[in-house]
């Protein structure tokens, strides 16, 4: 490693004040600090200097020592030196990096036709019919709309809700993330303390099963939503929608209890609003027991939004909406997306769905998830810094605390663990309001051996703290 201050490092320090870098680290504490480069080799410093010159400062790198990735296969990423990294973070490629069935489907379709939805094409209808059949509630009788990203899907869902309700109020949990469009960023408080929320956006506390009595969470949350609905009304507005990711991923990963959302949906509908289930992270079998996260809660959404894993890395997303909800929107407004639902996107989505079913990926998530749960809980019994282990399937949050009795968050130790694992070539992230929760969210084809490697390396890092 080069420990001298090079010219690129000086250029990088000139790119922004230390105060602004500290603010960035506060928003993404497992990220790279561009003001601290001395521990990096000269080639990495030159790359980062070039990156800062060419890309907006809103782009962030992971880890104190960033990883230069050049290739991926299954649950592994490879750097430019040929080293493998166990990917325990990227849910986008739900059936594995460079999955040959998706690659083949995209390649064949791209060499045949790539056009939009204004021409008659059978595959988009076949896929819509196929995907709708995976829902176990009345939403399976819904209609589909296609976008390119989850942000677009949540944006569109909210526009539909606002048109349907004739109101603009939106309620989310306190650290929710639902997108980066102008509209969705206005109800994504996890974007940072300086990110402005909309005037009729309100937040409610996340269902923190670590600090609240689980049996009381659902009714408490419903009561808090009711209070926020009244607050919106007092300020001259009204409720359009409550939107939630049923894993409450950005809030710190709260997979249980599963009786939280049904009472909330009841309160929302009484106020004339819609319940939107954001399945971008919790859908496509992530729980191991259900294809869709909201089904674990026994709630029927008015709109379901889909994203990230839908095309295993190809930019395809969309939503499912009850026909009566979207009828007025369809009459009053045009909606067309040049790339949403194009021929290649549908090929990627269909191939991904086929792999999920044909290769019994949900069963794998449940089986390997049980191994991870057992191993993580064993580590919690061994190390006092682990306050709580929560999750299901292949999505876990491990909360790091300074004192178990006080349950106070420990961002510094969480950061050390994330970067310690990176040094041992295992990639995870952190989440929660204080980023004190280790976020473990691998591709759904993660195997038992992969789980063992993750647990072994985590044990090693914890022992060295």
Automatic annotation (TrEMBL):
Stretch list, region Disordered: 1-30
Cited PROSITE patterns: AA_TRANSFER_CLASS_3
UniProt keywords, alphabetically: Aminotransferase, Pyridoxal phosphate, Transferase
Known cofactor(s): pyridoxal 5'-phosphate
Single GO term (MF): pyridoxal phosphate binding
Similarity annotation: Belongs to the class-III pyridoxal-phosphate-dependent aminotransferase family.
Protein name (database record): Aminotransferase class-III
